[in-house]
TrEMBL record:
Record's catalysed reaction(s): (R)-pantoate + NADP(+) = 2-dehydropantoate + NADPH + H(+)
GO cellular component: cytoplasm
Keyword Oxidoreductase among record annotations: yes
Domain of life, per lineage: Bacteria
Cross-referenced InterPro entries: 6-PGluconate_DH-like_C_sf, 6PGD_dom2, ApbA, KPA_reductase, KPR-Related, KPR_N, NAD(P)-bd_dom_sf
Single GO MF descriptor: 2-dehydropantoate 2-reductase activity
Name of the molecule in the record: 2-dehydropantoate 2-reductase
Enzyme class (EC, first level): oxidoreductase
Family statement: Belongs to the ketopantoate reductase family.
Length: 317
């Protein structure tokens, strides 16, 4: 293209749809909004979102859709629902995914591409791991306490996506995504589950009564991750525990927030994923199994309570 044409040709602004406008979806939408046309795909009333990033409170500059009706394919779909809700966003993906769409999966756990294989082939999925601390404190308001980083699998889609993101949210391109995702999964399997079970923030890692349980979960997780091809250093479990000790003491995990709000828990994609891999590779993970069972019992109880609350509201209405 000549220099003249380059100047007069209208620039195509990339289009992005964020499906799952909770804590992480809102932070990422905000970070994309300067360089792309962003649509927030929300269920319920189509209100805009506000965000508070370390005291800077503002409205997210994005369109809002409450239903997929009338939407067409976009350049990028960013999926930020909890892993267990991925199947439910099928109607959004039907509308938004076309032959040139890349789906960015920003979720804890592993198996990101498999979860959306019905809608998009693996080569057009960009899996990502999230290192952000955020919470949706009201229906239309998210607080971001640490605008950390995203880690995405290296490739052409990764560089193009990174170029769209405000540099204040760093995007790290990782060659070994297996090691990256298993490292986070092993930590989430211990930290998210034990904070949710004890109803305590990250300070629980230092409790001498609970610390041995952290150690056992991490050691089993590391053994399974290694069997799955993650390349972890010698003494990885202790290293992970030290990393957890460095996290803000009064911060919640996403699973603790879900427990406190009476929402379904993501454990089937955390401890559940570790157990599935352990069964396949023949690695023993008895502590992970016990803790998984406890969280499952908690999840069912929270669900029953949520249903009872809904019923009460219906009766009162
Ligand atoms: N929060 C954090 O600090 C961190 C989270 N993560 C991971 O990031 C991922 C996203 O977590 P997070 O942002 O915390 O989760 P949230 O629960 O805050 O947000 C998920 C959003 O998805 C929406 N949703 C669920 N089902 C549907 C549906 N069928 N259609 C449309 N929207 C739907 C929910 O809507 P509604 O509001 O209506 O319920 C909710 O707003 C998870 O895998 C989590 O583990 C990782 C690191 C840190
Ligand atoms: C690492 C941690 C605990 C950070 O918030 C997380 O991934 C989560 O809350 O799901």
């Amino acid at each position: 293209m000549t220099e003249y044409l380059r100047r007069v040709a209208p620039r195509h602004r990339p289009t992005v749809a964020v499906v799952g406008v909770g804590a992480i979806g809102t932070v990422v939408a905000d970070a994309l909004s300067a360089r792309a046309d962003v649509t927030l795909c929300r269920r319920g009333p189509s209100a805009p979102m506000a965000i508070d990033v370390s005291g800077d409170l503002h409205r997210v500059d994005a369109a809002v859709a409450a239903t997929p009706d009338g939407l067409g394919p976009v350049d990028w779909v960013v999926v930020t629902v909890k892993a267990q809700d991925t199947r439910d966003i099928g109607p959004w993906l039907d509308a938004l995914v076309g032959p040139a769409t890349t789906v960015v999966m920003l979720q804890n756990g592993i198996g990101h591409a498999e979860r959306v294989s019905e809608w998009v082939p693996a080569e057009r999925v960009l899996p990502g791991i999230v290192y952000i601390a955020a919470e949706k404190i009201e229906r239309d308001l998210v607080v971001c306490r640490d605008l950390g980083a995203l880690a995405v699998a290296t490739g052409p889609a990764a560089s193009s996506f990174a170029a769209l993101v405000d540099p204040r949210l760093s995007v790290r391109l990782v060659d070994d995504f297996v090691t990256e995702s298993w490292t986070k999964l092993v930590m989430n399997s211990a930290l998210n589950t034990l904070t949710a079970l004890t109803d305590r923030t990250m300070e629980v890692t230092a409790d001498p009564a609970v610390r041995p349980l952290f150690r056992a979960l991490l050691a089993e997780g590391v053994a399974v991750a290694t069997a799955e091809g993650a390349r972890l250093p010698e003494g990885a479990a202790e290293l992970f525990l030290a990393r957890m000790d460095g996290l803000p003491r009064n911060s919640a995990t996403s699973m603790l927030l879900d427990r406190r709000a009476g929402r379904p828990l993501e454990h089937n994609y955390l401890t559940g994923a570790v157990l599935a891999a352990a069964a396949l590779s023949g690695v023993a993970a008895p502590t992970v199994a016990l803790v998984h069972g406890l969280v499952d019992a908690l999840d069912n109880r929270e669900l029953r309570l949520a249903l009872a609350r809904e019923l009460e509201e219906l009766v009162a209405a």
